[in-house]
TrEMBL record:
InterPro entries linked: GcrA
Region (Disordered): 48-69
Stored Pfam families: GcrA
Species annotation: Rhodopseudomonas julia
Name of this protein: GcrA cell cycle regulator
Length: 170
DNA sequence: CCCTGATTCGC
DNA sequence: GCGAATCAGG
């Protein structure tokens, strides 16, 4: 595939709408997210708001040396401690999670192919067959077709205890 | 591990 | 110009 005017146009549009590079790649088809990002840069529209970075990396030769893959798993402190922190953070998130509004897509993120797979929430939104019918698309839990919130919704009807627990928490 | 965008550079 | 490989970070 090449960057035709239409494809570039769609690329710009989706990028401006806030879709991630991989999602755009999936939308366009025939390109990888790297290709998308590369094009974004060439078009000079990189830096949407402030995703990540503002960092400066030292350039590094690619051809000559195979380059020792110094996988930086810096683990500054103790691994055990790091694990603890993670658990704590997760617990916090769970406690603070609640709003239905938080699941609302900021933009028309209608899921098409690609991303709608194993780890994306397949909770239907809208009427099937309707033009605006789409899926939640949030990160889904492992071994679950739905995201955290929608999984909870699904279980509410079948598990009263879960409902009570949720009510107590939030 | 999953993901994100950023950058380099051989093609 | 293109994009894979690589990088830094969440």
């Amino acid at each position: 595939m090449s960057w035709t005017d239409e494809r570039v146009d769609l690329l710009k549009k989706l990028w401006q709408e806030g879709l991630s590079a991989s999602q755009i790649a999936g939308e366009l088809g025939g390109v990888t997210r790297n290709a998308v990002i590369g094009k974004i840069h060439r078009l000079g529209l990189s830096g949407r708001g402030q995703p990540t970075s503002t960092i400066k990396r030292a350039r590094r030769p690619r051809n000559s040396a195979p380059v020792r893959q110094q996988r930086r798993t810096v683990t500054v402190g103790a691994t055990a401690l790091q694990a603890e922190v993670e658990v704590e953070m997760e617990a916090e998130q769970e406690t603070e999670l609640q709003p239905v509004h938080a699941l609302v897509m900021p933009i028309s993120r209608r899921l098409t192919i690609e991303k709608l797979t194993e780890r994306t929430c397949k909770w239907p939104i809208g009427d099937p067959g309707d033009e605006d019918f789409h899926f939640c698309g949030c990160d889904s839990l492992e071994s679950s077709p739905y995201c955290e919130y929608h999984a909870g919704v699904a279980y509410q009807t079948s598990d009263p205890r879960r409902r009570m627990k949720r009510a107590a928490n939030g």
